[in-house]
Design brief:
By secondary structure, this protein is mainly α. It contains six helices and no strands. The protein has one domain.
């Protein structure tokens, strides 16, 4: 039993020396998504840590194995959708991303793991509906202009 505990402790200590990248790259603010004032607070509190370059890295993001999970989620989130570089997306990609926002805010975002540590990011049903209505208006306007 002592050998097992010592081995686990040693592994935990060694893990602390395997650092992960935690970055908030500089970016051109003019390329950031500009949200309507009623949508912005919801998106920023529920989405920005993983879907922008304005991530707030909590203290526990420096402790393995949490650091590995958090870094992976942020990198994956930025790859999927990054509000900091929205204007670098072409119109087709923006349209696709809005459809993803429409679906994800209802079904899977923010992630349960994130909400566990950030309960303030949990969107109410009403907030989710408000975001979906906003996204749907943008989607419908784009599709209407494309059909003309």
């Amino acid at each position: 039993m002592k050998i097992t505990l010592f081995t686990l402790l040693a592994i935990f200590v060694i893990m602390q020396f395997i650092l992960v990248e935690k970055t908030n790259p500089q970016y051109d603010k003019s390329k950031e998504f500009v949200f309507p004032s009623h949508i912005e607070p919801m998106i920023k509190s529920a989405c920005y840590d993983c879907h922008s370059y304005d991530t707030v890295w909590p203290w526990y993001s420096a402790i393995a194995p949490m650091s590995y999970s958090i870094s992976k989620n942020v990198n994956h989130g930025r790859d999927a959708l990054n509000f900091s570089i929205w204007e670098e997306y072409d119109d087709e990609k923006k349209h696709k991303k809005m459809k993803e926002i429409f679906r994800a805010v209802y079904a899977s975002m923010p992630l349960d793991d994130y909400i566990r540590f950030h309960p303030e990011a949990d969107l109410t049903k009403e907030q989710r509906a408000e975001i979906r209505t906003w996204a749907k208006e943008i989607i419908d306007a784009k599709e209407a202009s494309a059909s003309k």
